[in-house]
Design a protein that fits this description.
Growth Hormone, Chain: A, Major facilitator superfamily (MFS) profile domain-containing protein, three-stranded antiparallel β-sheet, 27 helices, mainly alpha, 584 residues, MFS_sugar_transport-like, globular, transmembrane helix, MFS_trans_sf
Length: 584
């Protein structure tokens, strides 16, 4: 999921606190808009837990992994469209109205999902929420940035990134809170409507971005807002700075053309922008193909694959991954300016690859050592209760729990009553038979099998998040904010962002199908392979931009570069940026 807060110096946070203490109106603007980040994080995280209970209520969802993937990934598909529409809405109607529209979509989507009586309606609600996510992902930080004093802008914008990861963590807490409540997933998904409504009401009383107003030739309205943000002796200077900035921006836009096709043609025809896009797209695609959103969207399901059958237990253990991701986004602020973007990403990728390989080994061992199937246990509940695939199998004596679950979506494993690691029963996955199994204080498994390796899998999953969050979780977005010439920053960043969302969609739409076709172990091994390719690509294509002015970055890309390969992790060096070459 995605992004992270811009990196700022510690002194900037001190100044930020002092400034907002004197002028609370600034924090009111930032936090009101930042609720969009909270909604972004909540709506992308809540589905991981809600899906467990949606499967229980709709048998079509439980039996078809493609339907589960569609419910999860349609929010991503909506976000791609929402991000594209958001850019146009921001320019045409302003930042404030765009946030209001996103809130409306969030609210309606939450209500539709909460009252859905079919998987189709849930999918429709997810698309609406996705549209809101796409708009909020670009509009909220833009509004905060343009309505903040320049000296504390980074610190205030970073609150949006923190609220995104905070929203994901909150979604897991909400999921856990409603596990015993009638309606479970309906409450989980419907609660998102509350902060959307709160933000809608707050934004009605807040002004438009002063920068957008100035671009619309509404200078007096822009000045009135600046009067509330800046001390009286600074307002005139800010008006002059705003005038120069907008005029320069319009001139740059004119130099690259008005139409999207003209902008794209000029971008790809410019060697500096093209090399910047190689780096920007590489890090955005790599961020998704390390498999991060398989964890953020499906972590309770992964925990169940590791052998924890209880929905509540799976949600509780999933809090570890979400909490570590939130903490990692804060930790990155202390490292990214100290050690550099490129080095942090490379070290992060090495850690990710190691964790994915270990995770593959753990799941492989868990599958091969899963409990055997007992023919006595399988007929214990009556002949009609046994899974038909087991009865027809010529080699049924060699079956274990994993063989049973993979045989068909109509098969389930009922553990031994005294010890879940002893041979159990392969039964038909029907409600009445599940009830009979649980009535004897046995555990019912449909996704994973009892395993002594389960807790190890959760610990490695936590290590994976620790490796990912401070590096690949935040640095790709920072690189994309620094790698393009100013006049191409919008189009370059937009192309890279779309590549991120599309990669996100591919991964989230295919994960469960991959685990079904390849098994959990080989799926994680596949992502380790993708991560290795990403590591090589980052090493070859992505320069260090830490501490460089935009003009220096442009000159570096113009000459070509050959980055130092695999720099030592967490060792400060004076120059780890690039080595000039004549490569194109």
């Amino acid at each position: 999921m995605e992004g992270g807060p811009p990196q700022v110096k510690k002194t900037e946070f001190t100044e930020c606190w002092q400034t907002v203490w004197k002028t609370p109106y600034i924090m009111r603007l930032a936090l009101s808009a930042g609720i969009g980040g909270l909604l972004f994080g909540y709506d992308t995280g809540v589905i991981s837990g809600a899906l467990l209970y949606i499967r229980d209520d709709f048998k079509s969802v439980e039996k078809h992994t493609w339907l589960q993937e569609t419910i999860v990934s349609m929010a991503v598909a909506g976000a791609i469209i929402g991000a594209a529409l958001g850019g146009w809405l921001n320019d045409r109607y302003g930042r404030r109205k765009s946030i209001l529209i996103a809130d409306f979509l969030f609210f309606v989507g939450a209500i539709v999902m909460a009252f859905s009586h079919s998987p189709g309606l849930i999918i429709f609600g997810r698309i609406l929420v996705g549209l809101g996510v796409g708009m909020a992902s670009m509009t909220a930080p833009l509004y905060i940035s343009e309505a903040s004093p320049a000296r504390i802008r980074g610190a205030l914008v970073s609150t949006n990134g923190l609220l995104i990861t905070g929203g994901q963590f909150l979604s897991y807490l909400i999921n856990l809170a409603f596990t015993k409540t009638p309606g479970t997933w309906r409450w989980m998904l419907g609660v998102a409507g509350v902060p959307a409504l709160v933000q809608f009401i707050l934004m009605l009383s807040l002004p438009e971005s002063p920068r957008w107003l100035y671009r619309q030739n509404k200078e007096q309205e822009a000045r009135a807002i600046l009067d509330k943000i800046y001390p009286a002796n600074e307002v005139e200077d800010e008006m002059k700075a705003l005038q120069l900035s907008v005029e320069a921006e319009k001139a740059e836009e004119g130099s690259i053309g008005d139409g999207i096709i003209a902008k794209l043609r000029r971008a790809f025809g410019n060697v500096v922008v093209r090399r910047g896009l190689y780096a920007g797209i590489t890090v955005q695609v790599a961020q998704q193909f390390v498999g991060i959103n398989t964890v953020m969207y499906y972590s309770p399901t992964i925990v169940q694959l590791a052998g924890f059958a209880s929905n509540k237990t799976a949600l509780a253990l999933s809090l570890i991954t979400s909490g570590l991701n939130a903490v990692g986004s804060i930790v990155s602020m202390a490292f990214v300016d100290r050690y550099g973007r490129r080095r942090l990403m490379i070290c992060s990728m090495i850690g990710i690859i190691v964790c994915l390989v270990v995770l593959a080994i753990v799941f492989r061992e868990a599958a091969s050592h899963s409990p055997l199937i007992s023919s006595f246990e399988s007929t214990h509940f009556g002949g009609n209760s046994t899974c038909p695939n087991y009865l027809k199998a010529p080699d049924a004596s060699s079956w274990n729990c994993m063989t049973c679950l993979k045989a068909s979506s109509d098969c389930a494993f009922c553990s031994d009553g005294d010890n879940e690691y002893l041979p159990g029963a392969c039964l038909a996955a029907e409600d009445a038979i599940r009830g009979a199994c649980r009535a004897e204080r046995r555990t019912w498994y449909t996704n994973g099998c009892p395993s002594r390796y389960g807790i190890l899998a959760v610990l490695v999953l936590g290590a994976y998040i620790i490796s990912y969050s401070p590096g690949m979780g935040t640095a790709p977005w920072i690189v994309n904010s620094e790698i393009y010439p100013l006049r191409y920053r919008g189009i370059g960043g937009g192309i890279a962002a779309v590549s991120n969302w599309v990669s996100n969609l591919i991964v989230s739409e295919s994960f469960l199908s991959l685990t079904e076709a390849l098994g959990s172990a080989y799926t994680f091994l596949l992502f380790a392979g993708f991560s290795f390719i990403g590591l090589v690509a980052i090493s070859l294509l992505v320069p260090e931009t830490k501490g460089l002015q935009l003009e220096e970055v442009e000159k570096m890309l113009e000459k070509g570069y050959r980055p130092n390969l695999l720099p030592k992790c967490f060792k400060r060096r004076k120059d780890d940026s690039t080595q000039v070459s004549n490569n194109s």
